[in-house]
């Protein structure tokens, strides 16, 4: 079943209205539905609704409407198809690895109350993040249906009107029915471009991606189609890396931002420093032995030599792992406030903004640069090859899922 804000038929497919079951008192008077009422008006007049997609009103009010959809959609699909074993909910910008997901679900009993997803928290409510996809079993839907009463619906709508998010409200309603979330791995909250390839996930089956653009949708679909043609029905993150990522890596790539992680500045907190950064360490020239002075003179630049003449000290950039504990504390103190607070990637900037109570909804970025301000990126290919070489061979997805289900799923 496909849901949208407005019920209609497109290309021979019926599109269900996601807000049809919401009470009229909210749909036709509550401020969250201002944009919805405008959509209905324009649709009735035969206007092109796609022209509203990039407007500020669509961006803001789209989120306001979102919180009203999750609970009604969940109940509607059960009413329409009450005998389905598993109800899988997926948004338009998400991609699901179906063979891997079905392998996991084959290990579980759909008659039991399962609510599966990527666990997040809002206050004391544990919920499955809607953007990554979530799964509800037939047993859980039956329990939800038993508390689907006019009194409860009215109470849930009052709570939604003052609440936060649709996926949070769905989790709260399921909790009332006696169904709690079970977190599962493999559901990723960003697109393929943002994924951090590493040892912890190398042999883990991939289930879903979020914020996936049309180009990446096509890449993932072609990847899966080719594997199916080769009778390879399942895959892990390692397989995605080898097929879709490795061939695009190079030691240097001009006019390209490789979306690497932000610099990591850490003090004596026990966290590791940025291994590629040289930390400023001020040393006293007079405390060096004659042999050490001779070694240092070879590496000193003119500015450092002037500092020695004027102040008897010099500052040298030193790798974090070459510093003693005392030197690490000194290097940390030398960092200026702008260095400590700066964010050199959009991802890090966004994460920091979200920790701020009044964080902005959007961050504007100028794309492109003039000839004097161009970006080049690169990858440490030798290190990548060494990483792949030391990784153990992955077990089959079928075995991985069996071991995971026995160990982690009650």
From TrEMBL:
UniProt-listed Pfam families: Fringe (PF02434)
Membrane protein topology class: Single-pass type II membrane protein
The protein's Enzyme Commission number: 2.4.1.122
All residue ranges annotated as the Fringe-like glycosyltransferase domain in the record: 82-185
Keywords associated with the record: Glycosyltransferase, Membrane, Nucleotide-binding, Signal-anchor, Transferase, Transmembrane, Transmembrane helix
One Gene Ontology term of the molecular function aspect: glycoprotein-N-acetylgalactosamine 3-beta-galactosyltransferase activity
Coiled-coil residues: none
GO CC field: membrane
Subcellular location: Membrane
Listed InterPro entries: C1GALT1/C1GALT1_chp1, Fringe-like_glycosylTrfase
Pathway the protein acts in: Protein modification; protein glycosylation
Gene3D superfamilies: 3.90.550.50
Similarity remark: Belongs to the glycosyltransferase 31 family. Beta3-Gal-T subfamily.
Protein name, entry field: N-acetylgalactosaminide beta-1,3-galactosyltransferase
């Amino acid at each position: 079943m496909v849901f949208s804000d407005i019920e209609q038929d497109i290309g021979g497919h019926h599109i269900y209205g996601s807000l049809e079951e919401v009470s009229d008192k909210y749909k036709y008077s509550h401020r969250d539905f201002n944009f919805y009422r405008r959509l209905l008006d324009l649709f009735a007049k035969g206007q092109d609704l796609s022209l509203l997609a990039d407007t500020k009103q669509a961006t803001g009010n789209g989120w306001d409407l979102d919180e009203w959809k999750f609970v009604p959609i969940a109940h509607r699909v059960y009413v329409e198809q009450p005998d389905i074993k598993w109800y899988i909910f997926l948004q338009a910008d998400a991609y699901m690895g179906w063979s891997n997901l079905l392998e996991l679900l084959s290990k579980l009993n759909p008659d039991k109350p399962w609510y599966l997803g990527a666990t997040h928290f809002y206050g004391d409510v544990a919920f499955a993040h809607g953007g990554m996809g979530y799964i509800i079993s037939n047993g859980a839907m039956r329990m939800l249906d038993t508390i689907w009463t006019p009194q409860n619906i009215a109470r849930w709508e009052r709570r939604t009107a003052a609440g936060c998010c649709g996926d949070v409200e769905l989790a709260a309603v399921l909790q009332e029915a006696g169904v709690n979330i079970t977190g599962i791995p493999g559901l990723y909250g960003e697109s393929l471009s943002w994924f951090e390839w590493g040892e912890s996930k190398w042999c883990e089956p991939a289930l879903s991606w979020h914020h996936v653009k049309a180009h990446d949708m096509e890449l993932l679909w072609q990847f899966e189609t080719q594997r199916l043609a080769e009778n390879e029905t399942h895959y892990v993150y390692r397989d995605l890396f080898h097929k879709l990522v490795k061939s695009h890596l190079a030691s240097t790539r001009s006019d390209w931002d490789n979306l690497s992680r932000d610099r990591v500045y850490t003090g004596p907190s026990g966290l590791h420093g940025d291994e590629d950064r040289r930390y400023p360490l001020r040393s006293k020239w007079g405390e060096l032995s004659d042999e050490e002075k001779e070694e240092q003179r070879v590496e000193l630049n003119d500015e450092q030599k002037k500092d020695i003449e004027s102040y008897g000290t010099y500052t040298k950039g030193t790798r974090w792992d070459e510093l003693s504990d005392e030197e690490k504390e000194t290097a940390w103190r030398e960092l200026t406030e702008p260095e400590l607070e700066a964010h050199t990637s959009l991802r890090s900037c966004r994460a920091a903004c979200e920790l701020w109570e009044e964080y902005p909804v959007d961050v504007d970025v100028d794309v492109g640069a003039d000839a004097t301000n161009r970006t080049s990126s690169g990858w440490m290919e030798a290190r990548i090859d060494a990483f792949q070489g030391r990784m153990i061979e992955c077990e089959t997805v079928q075995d991985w899922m069996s071991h995971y289900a026995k160990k982690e799923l009650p």
